[in-house]
Amino acid sequence: MAPAKFWRERPQLGAALAWLGLALIAGAYLTFSERDTPFPGVAAVVPVAGTVLLLLSGSGNVQRGASAMLALPPLQWVGKLSYSLYLWHWPVIVYATMMVPDLSWPGRLACAALTLALSIFTYNFIENPIRRNGWLMANAARALIPAAMLTGAGVMATYANARLAVDDLDPSQRIIAETAAKPSTARAKVGCVLDYETVTPKPCVFGAKNADRSIALFGDSHADHWSTPLIEAAKKNDYKVVTWLKAACRASRLTVWSSKLKRDYTECDQWREQSIKEIIALRPSLVVISEISLTSSRKLSPDAQQSDSLDQNWQAGLRATLEAFSQAGLKVAFIRDVPFNSMFVDTCVARALWRGQTPSVCDAPRTDAANDAMAAVERDIVRAVPNATYIDMTDRFCDAKTCHVFIDGKLAYRDRHHMATPFAQTLEPPVERALFSTGAAEK
User: How far from 365 is each of 54, 339, 343, 362, CA to CA, in Å?
Assistant: First the structure.
């Protein structure tokens, strides 16, 4: 709000503010990250303050330093197109990545060129003619009424397009969409998979609720997706299933970094310890544990903070959890994690079918997806603990060389690493054999 005269009389100060403003903007661009910088928030002050200083430096029309650089015709020309560039770059990027998922650098440059061409066209033939239209400029209502009508038409067109897109789905695409959206048996019951902030356990009961025998299901969302076949198998064998499930909270006694919370996931540690106490107090016939493998979690969040001793801490944490139940006289069944995919399976398969390809183009080499080396370490830890059993169903997903995403006509995953519920239902027979036919669930 300072008068422009103030800056005209102090050109050196204006030049210094310009460089400082550019430095703040560049510093924010180069140093802020999704992992380390909660945004928006206090950190937003940095780029905003830089922009304000840059605007102040130019308010006195002092052509010196950074202001002189930004006054160059090419930069002024890009500045005039900036709003059109902002509007056009999103649809260009979205459609380009739909058509070509692995867009190369030449492809990205072509997208930039297309964005620029569209921006030049709309700036000259839509923006400016409307902005400078004498009839619209003569009266505010003349501009506001057409603007409101255009906005309303845009909303209605968007709504109609969304409805048509859903109603006109190809049957195979509809199946994929419905499969990916269907929740697990535990997640379908509100509140049974706790959010990040909740620390008080909330056990949920499924299956034969009046049964004398019970099974505890304990872990993160990778335990949750086993709830569907487990609960069905328990019903057939007159067991009830009691779940202790929390988002991104593994059963192993290991403090992890939360990319969502941007800090150590202490809520998980509190919830885990209380859950272990409650499970031991319940005295179930069997505790079933599953969790995302350490290898998969690293692939999922490659930029998350990792300590050099994480592997050792995980091994010790897994052993500690298993021993807590074993020493209490409880049987434990640990189910190996499912293979991890490099892409969202539902999107990949839908796109493959749309292109006339087979879903197998989305399959992954076993060496990349199955995490066999980590699983071997995990298996040895489990088998070394008394009363603990290791259950491996990887052969339901993979053969010796390939891990599949479309199995027996069903989508195996709803994203990159969670089983799709309709496919999980097909695993009830092997789950029943592993837990009940072998006597794992019998005291």
Answer: 52, 10, 13, 10
pLDDT band at 371 (very low <50, low <70, confident <90, very high): very high
Rounded to whole angstroms, the Cα distance separating 244 from 229 reads 16
Parallel/antiparallel/unpaired status of strands 213-219 and 257-258: unpaired
State the residue for tokens 């695409």: 173
Q: Is 183 exposed, middle or buried (0-12, 13-18, 19+ CB in 10 A)?
A: middle
pLDDT tens for 17-48 read 889 999 999 999 999 887 677 777 889 999 99
Q: Mean pLDDT throughout 221-232? A: 97
Nearest-angstrom CA–CA distance, 278 and 245: 13
- Say how many CA atoms lie within 13 Å of 312 toward its Cβ: 3
Classify burial at 213, counting beta carbons within 10 Å of its beta carbon; exposed 0-12, middle 13-18, buried 19 or more. middle
pTM: 0.74
**What is the helix (H) or strand (E) element at residue 182, kind and residue range?**
none
Query: Using CA atoms, how far apart are residues 183 and 414, in angstroms rounded to an integer?
Result: 10
Range in 90-99, 162-171, 285-294, 427-436 with the lowest mean pLDDT? 162-171
Alpha helices in 328-398 (DSSP H): 345-354, 366-369, 372-383
